[in-house]
Amino acid sequence: MDKRRKPNPTERRRDLCDAAIQLLADDGAKGLSHLKVDRKAGVPDGTTSFYFRTRSALLRAAAERLAELDLASLQSVADGSGGDGEGPTPSRLSQVVIQAGGEPQLSRTKARYELTMQATRDPALAAILQQAMEGFTKLHREILVRLMPRGAELEPAVVEDLSNVTLTFINGLLLRFTHDDRIIDSPERLDAILAAIATGILKSPDKGRLTETGGPG
């Protein structure tokens, strides 16, 4: 009698998505196939196509898994950014960003850009990534408010400027990481740069209008 434990469907889908993410990072979107995911995950041929009937379904599932991992990382920052009686720790956010430049997070960073390019031709995939970005941005704003001196007193439009500008900078930094260009290699250096960006925004007479549609008039 075969007493082997049947695979848990949720765990199996997660493992297949993790394998797909790694393949996207290693070989790009063109290198992704159901059979390659099977081999990467170490499962019988045909397993991936059983769970994800089409390549589009596989890409969308990988995007959802990636969003889950990214939000979990950022949530860990939010959970720890309230301080422990000694004041907030700004480097928590920077630690997550810097870690994204090294494995295993670097593979997720590369896969994210591959999926972003694919999303230009797949509205459903674009919607998944957009929803993930909205959640990420909301959490990022909350962290900024906690980390900024008197952040709770900032006007929402100013927080929006701070969030948009720092996220744009961070996205550019992550893109450089994918090319093995670690121009910033420590949370402390990133903290200093983000602080300088924030200081510039807060001193600007156009703060609160810098990133609105049309920009400052």
From TrEMBL:
<dbReference type="Pfam" id="PF17940">
    <property type="entry name" value="TetR_C_31"/>
</dbReference>
<dbReference type="InterPro" id="IPR001647">
    <property type="entry name" value="HTH_TetR"/>
</dbReference>
<keyword id="KW-0238">DNA-binding</keyword>
<dbReference type="InterPro" id="IPR036271">
    <property type="entry name" value="Tet_transcr_reg_TetR-rel_C_sf"/>
</dbReference>
<dbReference type="InterPro" id="IPR041583">
    <property type="entry name" value="TetR_C_31"/>
</dbReference>
<protein>
    <submittedName>
        <fullName>TetR family transcriptional regulator</fullName>
    </submittedName>
</protein>
<dbReference type="InterPro" id="IPR009057">
    <property type="entry name" value="Homeodomain-like_sf"/>
</dbReference>
<dbReference type="GO" id="GO:0003677">
    <property type="term" value="F:DNA binding"/>
</dbReference>
